[in-house]
Amino acid sequence: METISSEGPTLRQLELFLTLVGSERIASAGARLGLTPSATSHALRALESALGTQVIDRNAPGIELTYTGEAILPHVRDVFASMQIIRATAMAGARLERGLLKIGSHGASSSLNVLPHILEQFKQRYPGIDVFVTEQRDSEIARALIERRIEIGIVALPKPDLDTITLAVDELLAVLAPDHPLAELDVVPVEALAQYPFVMTHAGSQPIIERMFAQANIKPRVVHDLTQILSILEFVRRGQGVSALASLVLPQTYQGVVYRRIEPTSIRKVGLACLDQTRLSPVASALWKQVKSARSAGALPDLQERVEQLIRLG
Fold this sequence. Notes:
- The protein is an alpha/beta fold.
- The protein folds into three domains: about 10-85, Winged helix-like DNA-binding domain superfamily/Winged helix DNA-binding domain (Arc Repressor Mutant, subunit A), CATH 1.10.10; about 95-165 and about 270-314, D-Maltodextrin-Binding Protein, domain 2; about 170-265, D-Maltodextrin-Binding Protein, domain 2 (3-Layer(aba) Sandwich).
- The protein has twelve helices and ten strands.
- Strands 1, 2, 3, 4, 5, 8, 9 and 10 form an eight-stranded mixed sheet that branches.
- α9 links the parallel β6 (about 195-200) and β7 (about 220-225).
């Protein structure tokens, strides 16, 4: 059994520990922090000496944490989350004149039609705050929140493990070529949609589309699996199939494509999320309170009118 050092682990050693979690080799983890292989080995030994036990399984083929390593990982993340709050607090100051806010967005639906309105209002109130937006999958946004890599994210609801504010209720619409037989209908039955070659999105709308077909107990004949919204619209325009997408991601007009409601209606809620609203940095807290106040006052955009415009213009 190793002897616990009289000195606790340093922040640098804990930073190396976190870097090891996402690396393939110990040396490469150290290199990301500017450490030589020798310095990396020394820092890892010093960390384990300070803790009195190994945190990395030396017999594993890659980097695997020991039981103790897994147990301390969330607490180490908490340490650095607290450090981020300290830095943000010091930078922001009493009047939030400076600072940086990192926001995760689960795709085009949020980035195009939800975030701009929120950030425009926020920037007017806090012009000195820089906002950095990163787009990732919904599951990745939720993980980034839990791992404290971002403070606020826009996600599909529900998210029972997170604090959330509902921002919008989105609706799936059928995407069709104007001369397609289904385009003659005002509302397209989901069973009819499944009778034609289907262009599936590999982005944020995919889970709700799959759920829509599963609830109808039918399986679409997927002929293409695409990530980019414009690619899907172009494939539909050229007669490669039909599709369905959340209304928030759709452009109001796209020549050669029309939108129709689907029966039964499939909706998803989109919301602002954080790990704990009582422990946000001052900058993140300011945005959270702004959105919460706007939600209470009914000042968020009405997306139902947008759906009507999409169908009418399409």
